[in-house]
Design brief:
The chain has ten helices and eight strands. It has 301 residues and is α/β, with parallel strands linked by helices.
């Protein structure tokens, strides 16, 4: 969404609340008590009421910002800032733009948005021809910590990266792009084959074909997909069989370094979710704000 369109469409809190109500109804309101999806709107109470058990659902109930006290327009502005640029935006910059006094409040809000992105990404699996590899992302260490020589793993976090090598279709022209398809990045708990197997089972369709290098951690991949092709990692193979996954790794490292710098391990997955969400929807253009809003309105109970 463009800036002028946002200002005209959402001039005040009431317009944002009404718009969010419509988005929730489009996504579907589900009763927390009985699971019924048929509701009717109580205008005087500004709530939905279940047609079966008459349980009432508030406007924010069940969404990712259910317990937030911030106005919905502040959330809309934050989501607009997140989606208006491909390269992302830091919490500090969002704080300056919104004029909020508490950095911690903005930081939590940004992570809530990233959580919604991650929840949406977890609904889908990669399929077809899939490239698979691992990346080592620099992580924040306590101030004054001296990393031992030869113990480089102390300062990095291992991340599994998978991308569909089949190109996406452009939403406007219908033409296939010259870039890779969908992308997933997941933090690995360790370096064992069992950790890789879990990522494969949860994120890649069993009918897929996976291309990777000859890592000792990839010995069981063929048990979870239709076929698994391994090739010794060389400069040539990196530019052919694993071309797109290596480009994605380069981009995520540059993105994290340029905007967020070093990140603690426990928060890294949230930043990976944001990166993958925006990459996988890179052809949506001004529709990205609307797609994110649907993710925020999604009920996960």
């Amino acid at each position: 969404m463009r800036l002028l369109n946002f200002i005209n469409e959402f001039p005040d809190e009431h317009s944002c609340r009404e718009h969010f109500r419509q988005q929730r109804e489009k996504e579907g309101v589900k009763c927390k008590k009985c699971g019924n999806e048929k509701h009717y709107w109580l205008k005087a109470k500004y709530q939905w009421q279940c047609s079966e058990c008459r349980f009432r659902t508030c406007l924010r109930s069940g969404t990712t910002f259910e317990n937030s006290k911030l106005p919905i327009r502040i959330w809309y502005l934050a989501m607009f800032l997140v989606t208006m640029t491909k390269k992302g935006i830091s919490a500090k910059e969002v704080q300056r733009q919104l004029g909020l006094s508490s950095y911690q409040t903005v930081w939590k809000m940004m992570h809530t948005i990233r959580k919604a992105m991650g929840n949406r990404e977890n609904l889908y699996k990669l399929s077809g021809m899939v490239e698979f590899d691992e990346a080592y992302i620099k992580k924040a260490t306590p101030k004054g910590t001296k990393l031992k020589r030869g113990k480089g793993s102390q300062g990095v976090q291992n991340v599994a990266v998978a991308s569909e090598s089949v190109p996406l279709e452009d939403l406007n022209t219908g033409e296939l792009s010259k870039h890779f398809g969908y992308l997933k990045m997941k933090v690995l708990k360790g370096h064992d084959a069992s950790d890789v197997d879990l990522i494969i089972r949860e994120n890649i369709d069993e009918k897929s074909i996976i291309f990777s290098d000859k890592s000792a951690s990839y010995v069981n991949i063929s048990e979870y997909v239709e076929a698994h092709y391994e090739e010794k990692s060389t400069k040539e193979s990196s530019m052919t069989n694993l071309k797109w996954v290596h480009i994605a790794i380069s981009n995520i490292k540059r993105w994290l370094l340029g905007i967020h710098h070093k990140i603690k391990s426990k928060y890294l997955q949230a930043y990976l979710d944001e990166f993958c969400y925006k990459v996988n929807r890179r052809y949506f253009g001004h529709k990205l704000f609307d797609r994110l809003l649907l993710a925020m309105a999604k009920t996960y109970w």
